[in-house]
Write a structure and sequence with these properties.
There is one protein chain. The longest helix has 5 residues. This protein has one helix and 13 strands. A hairpin with a 4-residue loop joins strand 10 and strand 11. The strands form three sheets. Strands 2, 6, 8, 9, 12 and 13 form a six-stranded mixed sheet that branches. A five-stranded antiparallel sheet has the order 4-3-7-11-10, with no helix packed on it. It is globular. The mean pLDDT is about 90.
Length: about 140
């Protein structure tokens, strides 16, 4: 195995659309606009143990609801009111391959019993690498 990609799961005929996911940590700031782009294993997202990771998802629709999946939790992103949504999570302390997902749901999916289900989810691998060491200032 020399490479991997993210995963995209989208409702057939749905209109909810993740445009990008920005991943930030002390040593990383990257923007992903295509979850299916192939990444060499040596170029996976690398973070130090327990380092906070900030995700910013852009859907372009301020009424969407965006959820985080990972680390045995499902949590709601903060809606910034402009079609972007932000969430922060600790990378984890155990070394190795991990994953997280973001799921954008239309407002009607959650709050209108008559609306059709409409979702767009992106899932990504990342690596917790203890060789990165502690982040200065922590």
């Amino acid at each position: 195995l020399v490479g991997t990609s993210g995963v995209e799961v989208k409702t057939r005929g749905g209109s909810t659309d993740i445009q990008s996911v920005r991943i930030q940590s002390a040593r990383l700031d990257t923007l992903i606009t295509d979850p299916l782009e192939m990444h060499r294993l040596r170029r996976l997202v690398l973070v130090a143990p327990d380092q906070p990771v900030t995700l910013t998802v852009t859907t372009g629709n301020a009424s969407d609801v965006v959820l985080f999946y990972g680390r045995d939790q499902r949590r709601r992103f903060t809606n910034n009111g402009n079609g972007t949504f932000t969430f922060m999570f600790p990378a984890g302390r155990f070394p190795g391959l991990q994953h997280f997902g973001v799921d954008a749901l239309s407002n009607g999916t959650l709050f209108d019993d008559q609306a059709a289900y409409d979702s767009n989810a992106w899932l990504f691998p990342y690596t917790v690498n203890p060789l990165l060491g502690p982040v200065e200032g922590r």
